[in-house]
Task: inverse folding
């Protein structure tokens, strides 16, 4: 009995010590709390298609499909209607909309961008967006940050950093609609003679 109490105390202290860093590394920020960083060039999750066109008049979103999804992308170097100076350092921007609202924003930067490696890019983008820097999960090919309702993924593509911001609730709704559509199509094809 004498040894159980001190061992129990030590075990409890270790458990608390190990869970403290994990709690400190969580990101509780919501999309609305992200800073309007110049690194996103005026684009932000939740904006409407018209608001995105106000930022980049030359974009042409595809028509919405039967479940409310539309997408577009642009490359400032290849589209003469895009102001290259306004998108300095950008290789490509991809936008995905659900029900007319931006739910995925991906920006691929070229090798001339100010943060050339993920080791520079992730802390720089974290500061720009007001994110906790120590909360990113690092894997061999990417850095991922899960916040309250937004996921961020940073990776290197074609010798340049990239960032993907995704509204997790909208993505879940989109995936649910896609599954329901496929189930409906499967059921309809099985009913055909």
Result:
């Amino acid at each position: 009995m004498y040894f159980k109490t001190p061992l129990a105390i030590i075990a409890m202290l270790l458990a608390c010590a190990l869970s403290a860093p994990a709690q400190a590394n969580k990101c509780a920020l919501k999309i609305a709390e992200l800073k309007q960083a110049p690194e996103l060039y005026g684009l932000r999750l939740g904006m409407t298609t018209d608001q995105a066109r106000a930022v980049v008049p030359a974009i042409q979103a595809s028509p919405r499909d039967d479940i409310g999804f539309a997408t577009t992308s642009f490359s400032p170097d290849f589209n003469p209607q895009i102001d290259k100076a306004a998108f300095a350092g950008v290789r490509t921007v991809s936008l995905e909309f659900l029900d007319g609202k931006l739910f995925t924003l991906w920006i691929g930067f070229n090798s001339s961008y100010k943060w050339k490696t993920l080791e520079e890019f992730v802390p720089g983008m974290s500061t720009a967006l007001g994110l906790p820097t120590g909360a990113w999960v690092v894997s061999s090919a990417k850095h991922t940050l899960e916040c309250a309702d937004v996921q961020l993924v940073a990776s290197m593509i074609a010798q340049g950093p990239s960032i993907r911001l995704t509204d997790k609730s909208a993505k879940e709704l989109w995936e649910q609609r896609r599954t329901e559509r496929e189930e409906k199509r499967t059921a309809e094809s099985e009913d055909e003679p």
